[in-house]
Amino acid sequence: MMKYALISIAIVSGLCGVTKAHEFWIEPQTHHTKPGTAIGVGLRLGERFLGEVFRRDDALIDKFVAVGPDGEQHIVGLSGATTSFARFDKPGAYVLGYRSHRTPHEMDADRFEAYLKEEGLGAIIPQRAKLNESDKPGREVFSRCAKSLVLVGDTSDRGYKRKLGFPLEIVPESNPLTLKPGNKLPVRILFNGKPLKDAKVVAVSKQTPSKMQTALSNNNGLVHFELPRGGAWMITTIHMTRVPELAEADWESFWASFTFEITEPNETTATSQERSKPAAKNGDDGKRASRREVPGKEPATGHRANRASVRMPHMAAAQNRCTPPPQSCRPS
Question: What span, in angstroms and rounded, lies between the C-alpha atoms of 269 and 151?
Fold first, then answer.
């Protein structure tokens, strides 16, 4: 309870500054690499690929893994670092996954219902009315279910469809890494392993973050997006349920994201890797690494990391300045 209280204080202090920072995603150093290599794996907090470095905080992590043909391995790093690391020994498709612990948050009634409307969670509003809670503060716990896809070597295996068992999960039905610009990508939304109907799903390109595609999942949890350009893409969705068994909250929200890259027709895997940002080198500290990742901006820490909008109370605890060298963080 003391941990929840401290996290709640951090969130409330962060709400004094209103920004649009609610999405959370995994940003690997590259989406294409060779067997026997290790890459840097970053976390980001923001909106539509525009955001800040989110320092690793082991107290918030329930699971942070890479799952591929050689099984599941932890994505390793030091708490407080801007970059973690994953090693890929076998060729194939690897799904990176980040699952956070629950974090509690409370908003006044008007802000909570405005947030519900904006995020496609309007079905919660009549439920609150039926429970005579329309004038009461919105008390929720939220957690993150982020995934990313990395292709190791040249392979067409079906590992891209691996499920990680997250409560809310985005699963591609065709291989995003072999798509060409203009192709359609079907994705399935799962909640507790079952197709989720009427979920609001958003797709956005890193090249054109102002242009979003939005769709509702059908009875089978499916949505289809036509992806007109190459480069990095992110798909996101949110789901909320009633949790009467919790003393500290009435609702629980789950925030899922899935990042991947479409290779341009004239771009090879090698040029895609060259374009990716390097991981921290031996001797680099956290500040130097963060400047490479977000030019001109320090990583999210303290009060700046805790700022949030009415759209979503994402937060980060104050974190230390340290980035591990790749050599010391590679899994054995």
Answer: 10
> Using CB atoms within 10 A of its CB, is residue 229 exposed (0-12), middle (13-18) or buried (19+)?
middle
pLDDT digits (tens, 9 = 90+) for 118-152: 999 999 999 999 999 999 999 999 999 999 999 99
Name residue 136's beta-bridge partners.
Answer: none
HSE-CB of 79 using CA atoms within 13 angstroms: 9
Contact (CB, 8 A) for 69 and 157: yes
Q: Which helix (H) or strand (E) holds 98?
A: strand 92-100
Helices (H), the chain: 2-14, 109-118, 124-130, 269-275, 286-293, 302-306, 326-329
Q: Is the pLDDT of residue 30 over 50?
A: yes
Q: Which tens digit of pLDDT belongs to each residue from 157-216?
A: 789 999 999 999 999 999 998 888 999 999 999 999 999 999 999 999 999 999 999 999
On the question of pLDDT at 238 being above 70, the answer is yes
Alpha carbon distances (Å) from 95 to 3, 23, 67, 92, 268 = 30, 19, 5, 10, 21
User: Alpha-carbon distance 245 to 240, whole Å?
Assistant: 15
- The residue whose two tokens read 């079905």 is 123
